[in-house]
Amino acid sequence: MVVEDGTTIDPVEGIDAAVQRLLVALGEVADAGSYAEVEVIRPWSAHNPRITGEFASVQPIRWYLERELGALLRRGATVGVRRSRPAVDLADVALSAAVDESDWDVRTKKLFLFGPERVALSLDRLAHYTGTAPESFQRYVLFTNYAMHVEAFRDRFADAEGPESPVQMPAWHHRAPGNTGVSIVNIGVGPSNAKTITDHIGVLRPDALIMIGHCGGLRNHQDVGDFVLATAYLRGDHVLDDVLPTSVPVTPNHYLNRFLLDALAERDTRFRLGTVYTTDNRNWEFNQAPALAAIRASRSVAVDMESATIAANGFRYRMPNATLLCVSDKPLHGAPKLSGAAAAFYEASRREHLAIALDAIDRVRRDHPRGVPAADIRSTDEPLFGTPTDVEPN
Questions:
Q1: For residue 318, is it within any domain?
Q2: Dist CA 155 CA 152 (whole Å)
Q3: Which end of the chain is more exposed for a tag (fewer CB within 10 A), N or C?
Q4: What is the percent of the chain with per-residue pLDDT over 70, rounded to a whole number?
Q5: Range among 89-98, 353-362, 384-393 rated most confident
Q6: 19 in the same domain as 158
Q7: 165 and 47 part of one domain
Q8: pLDDT band at residue 392, thresholds of 50, 70 and 90?
Q9: pLDDT band at 47 (very low <50, low <70, confident <90, very high)
Q10: 228 and 328 part of one domain
């Protein structure tokens, strides 16, 4: 049975219909200028039978809520929706304290990872940075640091939707029912942008993030145009050090990496597995000693400026992620990134690079339509609306 603002929903009408009524109730509360409180009663849970949470907006994560609420109802949970409190205006000074994540209580199990103020702010920021509505984002998101990958995406998907005017990090979306399409965001260069966009995309709860950028190859037996599939990261980007110590291991999602590896092998293309060193210094070659010491110690095979940042924020916000880079230069071997050679490289690599990532996403759709298992990024205080896992949460 589902309780919705005091109204009893007969289970005979079916789980799917019950979920839709809950979503309508959530939307009506949000449209009236309030936060909606969702209460979940789980009779099977000995430690957390009742969990509540507030929501600011439904439409951008409707597909996600359908999945989560449906799963709970199928297990026999009771779910209620009611008005909580007036929504905080984004111009209200109270917003600053409300979005501060430094006071999270890890002893209390949450319903959703983010508070309603944080969600509302991130949805507004996403529209500002990407030039597209948050509800346009699909559950599979590609990141790139070059416009040419976006061009390849638009060539591949003629119906892709994007910004109508220049923005900082333009996004394009190939939409499909249930948000099962693909989005791509040109985040530009640098770890600051990578952190910014993943901070906000986190509220959308994507099923997969894949970075398809360029890198500097660090080994003798690499050529320009070779691919690099990250198996680990050396975090020299520093933008998340205060909230995620560098001593915390961060690795790509096993399933995503396996699918990317299969796509690479099927094409019989040259690639290398290994550690990617992410730096915050675009001109690290001008002061090589610190970087080379880190590269040697970690046995890194490539250097870039975004991958470890995306992976670290993916770990923080429970978003399965992976990295497939393409070698655009070899800074230690007499092949720096130069304009003429770079142009020819980009033209030759962009379509294949995108196609490999899309092949992996197709595997995710087919093999894991309810989300890539990601037990490796679950935590002891994992929210009830969390990440897909092979183990049923308590």
A1: yes
A2: 5
A3: C
A4: 89
A5: 353-362
A6: no
A7: no
A8: very low
A9: confident
A10: yes
Residues 78 and 143 in one domain: no
Q: Which domain holds residue 254?
A: 135-377
| pLDDT at res. 298 | 94
Q: Which of 86, 106, 125 is the last residue of a domain?
A: 86
Q: Tell me, what CATH number does 242's domain have?
A: 3.40.50.1580
- What distance in Å separates the CA atoms of residue 349 and residue 126, rounded to the nearest whole number? 29
At residue 300, what is the residue type? S
- Rounded mean pLDDT, 295-304: 94
CA atoms of 128 and 93, how far apart (whole Å): 20
For the beta carbon of residue 188, count every other beta carbon within 10 angstroms.
Answer: 19
Q: What is the pLDDT of residue 336?
A: 59
Total residues found in the chain within this entry: 394
- 65 and 166 inside one domain: no
User: Has residue 308 got a pLDDT over 70?
Assistant: yes
Establish if 190 belongs to a structural domain. Answer: yes
Residues 53, 144, single domain; the answer is no
Summarize pLDDT for 177-214 with one digit per residue, the tens.
999 999 999 999 999 999 999 999 999 999 999 999 99
Work out how many domains the chain is built from and give that number: 2
Contact 325, 302 (CB under 8 A): yes
Q: How distant, in Å, are the alpha carbons of 12, 230, 267, 344 from that of 45?
A: 24, 38, 47, 59
Claim to verify: residue 312 and residue 253 sit in the same structural domain: yes
CB 313 within 8 A of CB 202: yes
**236 phi, psi to nearest 5 deg:** -105, 20
Which residue pairs from 144-147 have beta carbons closer than 8 angstroms and sit at least 24 positions apart in sequence? 144/184, 144/185, 144/186, 144/187, 144/211, 144/212, 144/213, 145/186, 145/187, 145/188, 145/189, 145/213, 145/214, 145/304, 145/305, 145/306, 146/186, 146/213, 146/214, 146/346, 146/350, 147/186
Say whether both 140 and 206 belong to one domain: yes
Question: Sign of the CA dihedral 366, 370, 375, 379?
Answer: positive
What is the per-residue pLDDT for 394? Answer: 47
